[in-house]
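Dear support,

I submitted the protein below through the web form. The confirmation email said the job was done, but the results page showed an empty box. After a refresh the structure appeared. I'm attaching both so you can tell me whether what I see now is the final result or a partial one.
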Amino acid sequence: MRLDRFLWFARLVKTRTVAQALATAGHLRLNGRPVDRAAAAVRIGAVIAFATPSGRVRAIRVAALPDRRGPPAEGRACYTDLLENASQQTPGD
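What the results page shows now:
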């Protein structure tokens, strides 16, 4: 699946145009490598990292490839937020 479509279907960005702009501007990383095109292939298990316009850094792992842009709960089921999970772990885990 194309990176811009995934970001839009999973409701990580409001429009597909915004997703394309993030990718072409080089603000996204896919599996640790900078992405410069919106058509980069996304697969289950891939890690996508980017900064939101508010300055928050997000890192997500793709859990499923959505078929459509559905309700927010359906979009959230397609990825796991890695940074939120890391901050909730206690030292020694």
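Response: this is the final, complete result; the empty box was a page-load delay. Residues 50 and 92 are 28 Å apart (CA to CA).
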